[in-house]
Amino acid sequence: MNGLILLASIAALIVVVLARQIPLQILGRIFSPVLRPVMRLFRIKMAGRGGPGTVKAIHTGNSAWATVSRAARMRTETERALGEDFSHEDANIKKHGPLFNWLSVVVGYIRVPGELSEDVSERYHELGTRFFNGRVPISADCQNLYEDEEGAIIARQFPEDRGCLYLLNRMRHTINSNVRKLTVIFSAIISCVLIINLLYNDGGLLNFAALFGIGADISAGPVTISIEDFNKAAFAVLTTIGGFFAMWTAYYVEYAPYQRNNFRELSNFITRYLARLNDHFRTAEGQAKSVTVGQERDASKFSRDARKWHTNVMWIAWRIFFIESFLRGVMFQILRNTGYYLVLIPLIFLVVLAGLNATLSDLTAFDLGARLADLGVIFIGLFVSLIAVYIVFLRHAMTSIDEVNQDEWIGFDSLMLDNVLGEMVGKYAEDVGYWKNRIGGSF
């Protein structure tokens, strides 16, 4: 019965850890009506954003409240900024895998037009004008993590790229979820191997000696192994090898290839998306340089077209810059959260096991030290080896991140924006110089 209670406790712990924020979100909704009067009583205000050009005064001690409230939120600040209607994007994302998951992106996902038409350039000019004349927000919700707040600002400033940002954020969720599942599964395997041996490896549950045709104690020089000790050792070997095989299967059959697919899909998508924007950038650059070419003689039309294409060039370049900045935040969150999972989840399992051991010791005559000594050196050595394998696997949980290589896509640095702007201004200056020399004098 004690063994079943311990295994059931581990199963409940697995569910709670995999559920992540769901229990906290449920509790947040339940206790929210109670907490609001308490917050008013202690003059604690919900953090928020100030008006234009102002920073809202936030209560002291906000960090403690933020820790609780942020965990109970249904969505992050970035997800709020991105909006809710992503039916097109979701329809063009395929989710694979029963336990660990990877996302594949259909070609039709990208909504950026294939060509920079006149209508598209007019829309870019309007969005670019709004951006370049806009105010930098200095007010922020300090309950948010910094990278979440930065991601939200980018999402609000560049609604044209919300589909791209949505995919990057969803990839982050999927990749981190895989790491969390892997750590929980491995920790559960280690815990189950330990509990099963502590409670059921008594040398009589499975008669391995009879299976191997051993009917008497085994003597090897000065060492004599009883049938009971042989059965304990064989049970320990069976369970630890089973644990190793389970971890090897989970890592190499699903986790490693699926995680690599996620990073590969992320890299391929960002490469295709930025390539589409680069095509628009080069079109806008060419149009900006050829404004004075042709039969058009209206100076005001020259001026308007030059302003429009110059804004297009700048706007597209800044979009690429901030998409890469958003990606940097995503990669930071992936690595940061992975580090949390790899440390905190095993620590949670260790604390729970220690608590269960203390409870079992109080309720029964169970003695962990005596039980480990009874299992013998063979089990302890095998279990330590299993823990070593566990650590090695988890240390390589993010090796597939090398699939994301900035050299593979056309980034902001590849645009050579300074040279492009210099060539555009130089082209206008050349045209002015040509006509001044042809007409003579100044005009």
Please render the helix and strand layout as text.
Elements: H1 2-19, H2 22-41, H3 62-71, H4 77-82, H5 87-91, E1 93-96, E2 102-105, H6 118-132, H7 146-157, H8 162-200, H9 208-211, E3 218-220, E4 223-225, H10 227-289, H11 299-363, H12 368-375, H13 377-395, H14 417-439
Antiparallel strand pairs: 1-2, 3-4
Helix pairs in contact: 1-8, 1-11, 6-11, 7-11, 8-10, 8-11, 8-13, 10-11, 10-13
**How would you sum up the major sheet?**
2 strands, antiparallel
H/E topology pattern: HHHHHEEHHHHEEHHHHH
Range of strand content: under 5%
What is the number of beta strands? Answer: 4
Adjacency order of strands in the biggest sheet: 1-2
Please state the CA-atom Rg, rounded to the nearest Å.
31 Å
What is the chains' assembly state? single chain
The chain-level structural class is mainly alpha
Straight-line N-to-C gap: 100 Å
List keywords for this structure.
14 helices, mainly alpha, 2 domains, 3% strand, two-stranded antiparallel sheet, single chain, elongated
